[in-house]
Write a structure and sequence with these properties.
By secondary structure, the protein is mainly alpha-helical. It has one domain. Helix content is 77%, strand content 0%. The protein contains four helices and no strands.
Amino acid sequence: MTPLVQLYWLRVTLGITAGAVTAVIAKFVFGTATDYTPLINSITIALLFYFITYYILKAVYKTKIEKQSKILSTGIGMYFFSWLMFFVLFYTIIQVITGAAA
């Protein structure tokens, strides 16, 4: 498996992880707000998570990938797509478990 393919699937996995983490944070930290504040804060946390992992992955893949801009752009779409899908999934599951779903 090439380093770009590894990076792509790592981004997908990180998107799923970020979706689960932000769903828990949105429910238990920002859950008292009834408007779009938990969603906006979750998007901000997902972006922060992406950039933190970018710098970690940049250190790991610096010598393996020739074009350094590829480290930032590879898998960015799938990261946010998988984050959004799993954020909605986990947030809904948490709402049902805690009995807050209407």
